[in-house]
């Protein structure tokens, strides 16, 4: 597959969403987007549910009607405000929000909205809501990729990526070299050893996606206390990808961000996507075809589907 460009300036960030305060969150998301653009970023990824904050949506004491009330469509005022910034700054903005497909709908999704220099591109609805998230969020049904000069870029949200590598493998097969992970990954209430335990869960899951696809993963996480101090987000936003080495095996490198950092912070850096070889999807000179064999997997899944 031919790509117009290999080099991308990208931004990820630890974002402390104000619980249930869209106005405050939107104002700071606009500020971070402009700051990233001034530092040369061509794309910025905000975390899962960054616009509304995640905590109120997992609080069973908050009526579903209230969650529906604060939810917007992709043509709503918040998206329009960020869309104007994306156009003005000439950047891509990806952010998490609760989404209604139509204004009158009562079904809502945990979604990631994608905006580009030309405006709204679309949204991805999380296919695998996590745990009690299923009580308020309807399951999405379709993967989502968007075309850029760097080739197709793919999106999954949090649990989609940590427990279901099939999604990232599908995207790699379809040509993606960069996969985005807007996430709300929680550390246990901070105590001795909790930070290390969280890191041992969060980071290896994403590095495994690199090992199994040979593409980059860009992850932006919420950070700090959320709704009524009921949950503590781990931060640790980073970009991981294939490491330059003299061996056939794929290794991981951290190109941007810091898994150990939980302060609200913006990271901007440059990636060379030519390192994302997707070699499992290329013809094996000794095997006569790609090592990745979707026709076999289809038969397997048809048996259990």
Can you tell me the CATH class? Alpha Beta
Radius of gyration: 19 Å
Widest β-sheet, arrangement of strands: 5-4-3-2-1-15
Largest sheet composition:
6 strands, mixed
Distance separating the two termini = 31 Å
Structural class: alpha+beta
User: What is the CATH homology-level superfamily?
Assistant: Carbon-nitrogen hydrolase
Order of helices and strands: EHEHHEEEEEHHEEHEEEEEEEEH
CATH architecture type: 4-Layer Sandwich
CATH topology: Nitrilase/N-carbamoyl-D-aminoacid amidohydrolase
InterPro entries: Aliph_Amidase/BUP, C-N_Hydrolase, C-N_Hydrolase_sf
Protein name: Carbon-nitrogen hydrolase family protein
Organism: Candidatus Allocopromorpha excrementavium
GO molecular function: hydrolase activity, acting on carbon-nitrogen (but not peptide) bonds, in linear amides
Characterise the protein shown here.
This protein is of the alpha+beta class. The chain has one domain (7-280): 4-Layer Sandwich (Nitrilase/N-carbamoyl-D-aminoacid amidohydrolase), CATH 3.60.110. It is 27% helix and 27% strand. It is built from 7 helices and 17 strands. Strand 1 (7-14), helix 1 (22-38) and strand 2 form a beta-alpha-beta unit. The two termini are 31 Å apart. The mean pLDDT is 94.
């Amino acid at each position: 597959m031919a790509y117009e460009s290999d080099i991308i300036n990208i931004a990820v960030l630890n974002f402390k969403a104000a619980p249930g305060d869209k106005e405050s969150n939107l104002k700071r998301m606009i500020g971070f987007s402009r700051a990233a653009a001034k530092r040369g970023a061509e794309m910025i990824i905000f975390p899962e549910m960054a616009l509304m904050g995640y905590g109120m949506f997992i609080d069973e004491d908050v009526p579903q009607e209230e969650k529906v009330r604060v939810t917007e469509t992709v043509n709503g005022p918040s998206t329009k405000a960020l869309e104007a910034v994306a156009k003005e700054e000439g950047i891509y903005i990806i952010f998490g929000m609760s989404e209604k497909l139509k204004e009158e709908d009562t079904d809502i999704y945990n979604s990631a909205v994608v905006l580009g220099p030309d405006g709204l591109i679309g949204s991805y609805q999380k296919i695998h809501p996590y745990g009690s998230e299923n009580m308020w969020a309807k399951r999405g049904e379709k993967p989502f990729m968007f075309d850029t000069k760097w080739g197709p870029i793919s999106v999954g949200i949090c649990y989609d990526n940590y427990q279901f590598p099939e999604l990232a493998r599908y995207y790699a097969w379809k040509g993606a070299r960069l996969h985005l992970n807007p996430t709300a990954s929680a550390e246990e209430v901070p105590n001795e050893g909790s930070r290390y335990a969280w890191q041992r869960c969060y980071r290896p899951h994403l590095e495994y996606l690199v090992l199994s696809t040979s593409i980059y993963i860009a992850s932006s996480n919420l950070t700090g206390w959320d709704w009524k101090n009921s949950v503590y987000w781990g931060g640790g936003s980073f970009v991981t990808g294939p490491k330059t080495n003299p061996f056939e095996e794929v290794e991981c490198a951290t190109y941007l961000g810091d898994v150990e950092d939980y302060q609200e912070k913006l990271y901007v850096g440059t990636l060379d996507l030519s390192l994302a070889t997707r070699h499992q999807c290329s013809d094996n000179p000794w095997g006569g075809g790609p090592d990745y064999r979707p026709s076999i997997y289809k038969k397997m899944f048809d048996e259990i589907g």
